[in-house]
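Objective 1b. Sequence-to-structure analysis of Activator of HSP90 ATPase.
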Amino acid sequence: MEPITINITILKPIRQVWDYFYDAKHIVKWNFTTTNWHCPKGFIDFREGGRFDYRLEYKDKSFGYNFSGVIDEIKELEYVKSHMDDGRKIEVIFRKIDENATEVIQVFEAEEQYSREMQRTGWYAILDRFHKYVEKH
């Protein structure tokens, strides 16, 4: 199955965008789809071979899941390739547009349980929340 690609432009320098994307103290503030959700736990050992584990759940605790896996390759300020515990691959690409603008592109393998459109919408909602968080700080 062909991977899904989403992207967004953030009006902040690439270094700040990169740092906020891979720092657990920031991840827990943006890594969820809507205000009914939150990310109560975020762990990342940001190095090749390091693990990441984020807990996403409804605020009322009625449903949640862990988003976790291993970082396979890091090219500083350019991209990070990872795979989730279920084997699906994720690549996050950072492209400097200018001194104060950065494009973030996420390419991820879809899971089979949910439609591609639902997954695209969910991943984009999280990326958009990240974009808004970074631009406020």
